Structure formats: structure tokens, C-alpha cells
Amino acid sequence: MKFGVQMFPTDYATPVTELGRAAEDLGFESLFLPEHTHIPTSRRTPWPGGAPLPQEYWHTLDPFVASGAVAAVTKTLNVGTGICLVIERDPITLAKEVASIDHLSGGRFLFGIGGGWNIEEMENHGTRGAVRWKVLRERILAMKEIWTKDEAEYHGEFVDFDPIWSWPKPAQKPHPPILVGGDGPRTFDRIIEYGDEWMPIGGRVNPGDTRTLEDKIGELQARAKAAGRGRIPVSIFGVPPKAESVERYIRAGVDRCVFGLPPAPAGTVLPILKRYAEIAASAR
To answer: Which helix (H) or strand (E) holds 148?
Structure first.
């Protein structure tokens, strides 16, 4: 079992460089950083979390700038997006950002992706909510071409470019692992086609879905085998910081547990991080 942590890297929280060093020193495998470029003040789209939207959603640093800063002050810690809103980014520029961080970190980047939930936010970037998964698919496939080809080109409905040169290429081959977030009816289709790992939010269940986590993992691995793929790793986001929760995920076949940290000063965050490290150590 691998253990990671996640925190919104806000302008008022403990600096991500301090958090990254502490996480590495305490034996964590990874640090994930979420993304929101902004939050429209209309608040038309309800937050899936149910409660009023926390302010960290509109105080979040750019995850690639923050990840690069963390990678520069650590040696073994993996850094990743949890998740990157691909639908809000130009794919050629995003391919460059991912490759650059992976290159500079020596292959320590984890590319968590998702379709997003805030419709007006993505509309501000020119993506309609109804087609966001189609847009995401084409942008990921186009980026894979850029990462793996000397002369890359892609021709789709939403992404279209003739042969281009773009370096650096990622340190990880063929590219950093793509962790697909979500737990919808098409999630496994997306993982099988263009993902490398599955990263659902722990405890969040879709209405009408009666499958257990064990059922879902079994279905995912069966589909991977049928598609000629190897075993697909599973990460759980937002794991309750309890030994029994971790033990349950271990039994279910989960590969990485990611604990959530509050976006708060170091005096609040670091003691929580140490407690999470103790829980992780007891499960190893």
C-alpha cells in the first residue's frame, strides 16, 4: 500500500514546499494538489460536497507551479494533480507543462485528471458541460501523441493540429501515469481507453449504484484483462484517517490511500500530517 496526502495549496495555507519536505520526511509516497482556475461568483452549479463551497476553491495556486516548487525541494516524493481540469487547458501547453515537471523531477509526476463539476467555470474556458468528456478525451489522446512522437499530430472534433515538434519528452515512458478520477457509468470506459489508474473519491456513491468497492475493482480488473491490459492500480482520494478504513481498502485491493489535509497554517497541518503518518506506518 502506498500513502499520499492532498491539500488545496492556497495563498493562506502552509507553503507547499514546507508541506512537501515534511511529507517526504514522514515517509509519504505522494502529494496531490487540486485545481480550480477560478470560481464564478454566480454559484449556479451546486458543489457535490453538499455544503456551501469552501473558500479554498477560489484561493488555490496553480497546481503545476506548486508541483514544480515541491519537486525542487524533494528527492523521492511523487507530486501530482488531484485533479487537473484538462477541459480548461490548451492541450499543447498542458502537454508541455506535464512533460517539463516530469523531466525536471526525474519522473516523479502523477497526472490525475477529471471532467470537473462547475459548469460555469468550464464555460468561462470555452467548454460546454455537455461535451466536456469528449473534449477531455481528445485532449488526452492528443497529449499522448505529443509525449510519444517526434512529430506529433492530431485531428479530432475539438483538437486539431498538423505535425509539431515539442520537447522535452517526459522522463517516464511512455508518459506519466494518467489517474482518471470519477465513479460514473463511463469511468471504466475512459480508463480502459486512455487511462492508467483509477482514482475515485472515497465514500462518494452515485445514486442507484449498489455495487461495493470490491465489486467495482473486480469489474475494472476483469475489463482490463479482456482488453489485453495488465492490472490497473487504484487510488482512493479522501480516505478517512482511521486504521480500520485503511485496512478495509487494503482488503479491497486498493494500491494507494490519499488522506486529505486542511488548507491551514503549518501549526495546524503538520501535527495532522504526523498523525496520518502513524496510521500509515501501522498498516504497512
So the answer is: helix 132-148
pLDDT at res. 50: 82
| Rounded Cα gap, residues 260 and 9, in angstroms | 12
Question: Given this model, what pLDDT does residue 51 score?
Answer: 80
- Predicted local confidence at residue 210, as pLDDT: 85
Burial of 260 (0-12, 13-18, 19+ CB in 10 A): buried
Pairs from 222-229 (Cβ < 8 Å, separation ≥ 24): 223/188, 223/192, 224/192, 227/192, 229/192
> What are the residue ranges in the chain where pLDDT is below 70?
204-205
Residue from 208, 199, 93 nearest 142 by CA: 93
Sequence-ordered list of residues with C-beta below 8 angstroms from that of 145, at least 6 positions apart, any chain: 152, 153, 154
From residue 98, give the alpha-carbon distance in Å to each of 48, 79, 80, 159, 245: 27, 11, 10, 18, 32
Helix (H, G, I), strand (E, B) or coil at 81: strand
The CA-atom distances, in angstroms, between 44 and each of 84, 165, 208 are 21, 41, 25
The residue assigned the cell 501501522 is 282
pLDDT of residue 203: 75
Does the pTM surpass 0.90? The reply is: yes
pLDDT digits (tens, 9 = 90+) for 74-102: 999 999 999 999 999 999 999 999 999 99
pLDDT, tens digit (0-9, with 9 covering 90-100), for 215-231: 999 999 999 999 999 99
Which is nearest to 277 in space by CA: 263, 254, 259?
Answer: 259
Q: Which residues are 81's β-sheet partners?
A: 33, 111
2-283, superfamily in CATH? Luciferase-like domain (3.20.20.30)
* 90, 42 contact by CB (below 8 A): no
